[in-house]
Design goal:
The chain is built from 9 helices and 61 strands. With 674 residues, the chain is mainly β.
Length: 674
């Protein structure tokens, strides 16, 4: 048969005169008439297939399909013995011929056409289909005659690999391709990759093509109605290794992909990187078509990050794009729409605001970088006339959080697992409905920007911003709540329990609510303990109960909430230089507006060589505005222990108001520059 011989992971095209593809071979009169050991060639082939997939005999009745385009092979656990039409024991199916096992068996048959009939859990699934072959068949789902549409099949937990105790472990590989499919040159449609959670260490030295759906795709590829949700981390352990990674395809020659919805976040660490929200790299001699020739829509809503594996960041070659990392794509039609999310791509720590392609070309018409709530994007329909946003976020949708993520219908956060899912979309809106005590806290958006809204106010009966509102409590928070706030955090009580070591030579920033902020913090209370220790005096720490570095924005609230807070206790010891401020350790630029005071708290700075501390701001390079009357009860008590104990306090009789001291209180700033 044609296309069934492989050399160096590529198809060797048969030169035999009269060579047939699988469809023609199975249906030709020759295969149905010529016998081998008393059985036709066709029946012998199907007997082998049925035994491998289902463990049942083929009796001449293709009850589960023939693997052809008109009669695709069904992957199902509802099995019957063809000989006497008796249903096979479910125990037998689960043990030996589950759909997961059937999917793995696909690797033996690259030419067949398949149909999925049910969703499956891929936890600990460790087979890359077509790793050293090329899949040229097709796989789709059943057609529902009532609704007149194909039904999506869900592949859950792809990439989740656990040890015998159920702990998630990293996948190690030195293969040059990685994905559900390795080398793909066929058709796939109507499938949802849900809760993708890939953590891969690439130990090889050659280029790795990483795609959640397929590592590499070729010219005959057709992908449509594919939804991908989750996240993947890929780390090259060897210097010089190249990684090209995309949510759909890592490396593409040509082909067509359309009606694709991705909310899969990709983080790649290497010294040579091409990472894109849909395709990592398109071959320089090929042009991937993001359409079917006349229509189609691409939704690239996943975050992409290119990270340096070099500590200095030197010698790294990387490109990152919201849609494509490196290469050119075409749309093929004016009906095609391509959407990417702004402020969602990072290249070596730098936010690429509106980069569609990291390096390459595309037709600018009908390609838009938009916000998550963009009405034009949400109003588009797939080829099947359905809204993908209804499919993904509807009542029985595939997203792990209830809600749509829009203002007024925020994603609902009910527990710790939900809280971790905030990292999936740092641009969306969230409402925390319950108090949460963390067992494994993770800072939201570590190293990234949060541009959405997190609201912990009671939204049922009372307005969330009223003085009588109840707010949720987050306990055992072991690090900053959010890394960099561009949006809004409000109506939350945070109880910190942080123990941090500042490594020698490190410049460390800590804020209980945010490491960095230029957005809005409203009705926030902070309590608990923070203990920061320098590994040596060759260290610098910027420390605050609220914000490490403020680039502008506001901190505001009302006294009725603030007065309910338990005191926050901060201890900093053995650090070379310390900057401390109650609101912000440092105001970097712009104008920061502070409009409520702090609850009683204490700060102990012990055995630190150089201390710059202020009641409200440690060091300011920009303008600060205080829009409230400062009260003694809302200040921290700051104790600095060097040779003698010193306490930083306000004067009992306020000074005359000045520009730097508008409320007549000393020590608002530790130091003000400019």
């Amino acid at each position: 048969m044609l296309n069934d011989t492989f050399l160096n992971d590529e198809v060797v095209v048969s030169s035999l005169s009269g060579g047939l593809n699988y469809n023609d071979f199975v249906t030709t009169a020759y295969s149905g008439e010529v016998q081998v050991v008393g059985e036709t060639v066709r029946n012998r082939l199907l007997s082998m297939i049925y035994e491998d997939f289902f463990g049942i005999a083929y009796s001449g009745v293709a009850g589960y399909g023939e693997g052809t385009e008109l009669s695709p092979l069904q992957l199902t656990t509802v099995l019957y013995d063809d000989a006497d039409n008796k249903k096979i024991s479910n125990d037998l199916v689960e043990a030996d011929y589950s759909v997961v096992k059937q999917i793995a068996t696909m690797d033996k048959y690259m030419l067949l056409n398949y149909v999925w009939t049910e969703s499956v859990d891929l936890t600990n699934f460790d087979t890359t289909i077509a790793l050293h072959k090329v899949f040229t068949g097709s796989i789709t789902t059943k057609y529902d005659e009532t609704s007149r549409e194909y039904i999506y099949v869900v592949l859950n937990n792809f990439g989740v690999k656990t040890d015998k105790n159920g702990n998630k472990i990293t996948i190690e590989t030195d293969d040059k391709v990685f994905g559900f499919f390795g080398h793909f040159n066929g058709k796939i449609s109507n499938v949802v990759f849900r809760n993708v959670a890939l953590d891969v260490d690439y130990t090889g030295t050659e280029a790795l093509s990483f795609g959640i759906v397929a590592g590499e795709t070729d010219s005959n590829t057709v992908m449509n109605n594919v939804i991908v949700i989750g996240q993947a981390k890929i780390n090259a352990t060897k210097a010089g290794a190249e990684i090209r990674a995309g949510a759909v395809s890592g490396y593409a020659y040509e082909g067509k992909i359309y009606d694709i919805f991705s909310m899969a976040n990709l983080a790649v660490t290497a010294t040579k990187i091409s990472v894109g929200g849909i395709v990592g790299k398109i071959d320089k001699n090929g042009t991937m078509q993001l359409s079917n020739g006349s229509s189609g829509t691409i939704y690239a809503l996943g975050r992409v990050e290119a990270k340096s594996s070099s500590k200095s960041g030197t010698g790294v070659q990387s490109v990152a794009g919201a849609v494509v990392g490196n290469g050119s794509f075409s749309l093929g039609a004016t009906k095609t729409n391509v959407y990417g999310i702004v402020k969602n791509a990072y290249n070596l720590g730098v936010l690429e605001d509106s980069t569609v392609v990291g390096l390459g070309n595309y037709n600018e018409d009908h390609v838009e970088m938009v916000s998550f709530d963009n009405k034009d994007m949400r109003g588009t329909l797939l080829e099947n006339e359905k809204s993908v946003f209804d499919v993904v976020f509807g009542t029985n949708g595939y997203y792990p959080l209830a809600g749509t993520g829009l203002s007024g219908d925020e994603f609902q956060v009910l527990n710790e697992e939900d809280f971790h899912n905030i990292n999936l979309a740092l641009y969306a809106n969230y409402r925390i409905k319950n108090n949460i005590t963390f067992t494994n806290f993770e800072t939201i958006g570590e190293g990234l920007y949060f541009s959405g809204t997190i609201d912990g106010g009671d939204s049922n009966n009372i307005a969330a911003d009223s003085e009588e509102s109840s707010i949720v409590s987050l306990s055992n928070v072991t690090g900053p709540l959010v890394y960099h706030v561009l949006g809004t955090i409000k109506n939350i009580g945070v109880n910190l329990n942080c123990n941090i070591v500042v490594e020698s030579g490190e410049e460390y920033y800590f804020g209980g609510i945010a490491v960095k902020a230029e957005g809005n913090l409203t009705n926030i209370t902070v309590g608990g303990t923070v203990n920061i220790v320098g590994a040596s005096k060759n260290t610098t720490a910027y420390v605050s109960g609220f914000v490490g570095v403020s680039y502008g924005g506001t901190i505001s609230g009302n006294k009725s909430i603030i007065n309910d807070i338990s005191a926050l206790s901060i201890t900093v010891s053995n650090v070379g230089t310390v900057y401390f401020g109650g609101y912000a350790a440092e105001v970097s630029q712009g104008m920061s507006i502070f409009s409520y005071g702090l609850a009683n708290g204490s700060v102990n700075i012990i055995d630190c060589t150089n201390v710059i501390a202020g009641l409200l701001v440690g060091q300011s390079h920009g303008e600060c505005t205080w829009s409230m009357t400062l009260e003694v009860t809302y200040f921290y008590d700051i104790y600095i222990t060097e040779d003698d104990l010193k306490k930083l306090v306000e004067k009992s009789s306020p000074e005359a108001k000045t520009k730097e001291n508008p409320n007549g209180v000393i020590n608002l700033y530790g130091r003000k520059n400019g």
